[in-house]
């Protein structure tokens, strides 16, 4: 893979995943050589937030989030809002994430909704954006977002154009990733074409969801180039122009000045 573009930002990835254990440092340090200016690696719980904080402290181009993912609620401490508030004070911690609802797995819905709601309340108190995960839970996710109207991002957005428009009305942004390059990704392609330019961010969700031509392999932030090429083609615009716009959107949403 050669450097074709500049100003690439990966708005959502998971560099603490064990899939990166064998070459994480090498990969993270090499990203700027491929035009990747900045990545936001997302936590799934407090332990994960602590691990990725160390990456952010080591690499100028790495930022992070802190929050409880709906799949990681098993050992959630009762005083977690206070612990989370502490973690969020770090200057490179830019959002509460990733949080939300996942009805694909058999995780108690009442617990998921309680923790999601408490983290939305925290985001209002601390005036921080949220990174929302919504898997097969569009109705309940939107109900809580309508109730609290946080600023933030619906990551790996998988809904219809109608749902995307409602997310826009709430003032939130969406990010799209490798799925947009898959065959049969009708919703993603439609949203890629119709989302307002100032509300679109690009992500990998690395190590998952690698775009074509690397589908099925481990994903990393360099693959944003393929996502950008596909979306630029759908929108009939220049790839670098799309990267410039989505990077600006990401920095604005997460209040990153650099
Ligand atoms: Ni994720």
Structure description:
- By secondary structure, the chain is of the alpha/beta class.
- The protein has a single domain (8-253), classed as TIM Barrel (Alpha-Beta Barrel), CATH 3.20.20.140.
- The protein has helices spanning 24-30, 46-58, 80-87, 109-126, 138-148, 161-169, 186-194, 224-235, 239-253; strands at 8-13, 36-41, 62-66, 93-102, 130-135, 152-154, 173-176, 200-202.
- Strands 1-2-3-4-5-6-7-8 form an 8-stranded parallel beta sheet.
- Helix 7 (186-194) links the parallel strand 7 (173-176) and strand 8 (200-202).
- Helix 4 (109-126) packs parallel to helix 5 (138-148) and helix 8 (224-235) crosses helix 9.
- It starts with 7 loop residues before the first strand and ends in a 5-residue tail after the last helix.
- The mean pLDDT is 97.
- Bound molecules: nickel (II) ion (NI).
- Nickel (II) ion (NI) binds next to loops.
């Amino acid at each position: 893979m050669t450097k074709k573009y500049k100003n690439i930002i990966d708005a959502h990835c998971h560099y603490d995943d064990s899939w990166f254990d064998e070459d994480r440092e090498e990969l993270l340090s090499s990203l700027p050589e491929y035009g990747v200016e900045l990545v936001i690696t997302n936590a799934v719980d407090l332990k994960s937030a602590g691990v990725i904080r160390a990456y952010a402290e080591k690499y100028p181009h790495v930022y992070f989030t802190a929050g409880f993912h709906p799949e990681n609620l098993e050992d959630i401490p009762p005083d977690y809002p206070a612990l989370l508030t502490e973690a969020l004070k770090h200057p490179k911690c830019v959002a509460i994430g990733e949080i939300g609802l996942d009805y694909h797995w058999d995780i108690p819905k009442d617990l998921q909704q309680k923790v999601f709601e408490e983290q939305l309340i925290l985001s209002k108190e601390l005036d921080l954006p949220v990174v929302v995960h919504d898997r097969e839970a569009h109705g309940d996710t939107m109900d809580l977002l309508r109730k609290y109207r946080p600023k933030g991002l619906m990551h790996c957005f998988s809904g219809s154009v109608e749902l995307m428009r409602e997310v826009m009305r709430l003032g939130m942004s969406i990010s799209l990733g490798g799925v947009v390059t898959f065959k049969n990704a009708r919703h993603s392609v439609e949203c890629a074409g119709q989302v307002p330019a100032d509300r679109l961010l690009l992500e990998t969700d690395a190590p998952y969801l690698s775009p074509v031509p690397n589908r099925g392999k481990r994903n990393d932030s360099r693959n944003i180039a393929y996502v950008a090429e596909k979306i630029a083609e759908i929108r009939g615009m220049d790839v670098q122009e799309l990267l410039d716009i989505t990077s600006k959107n990401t920095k604005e949403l997460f209040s990153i000045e650099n």
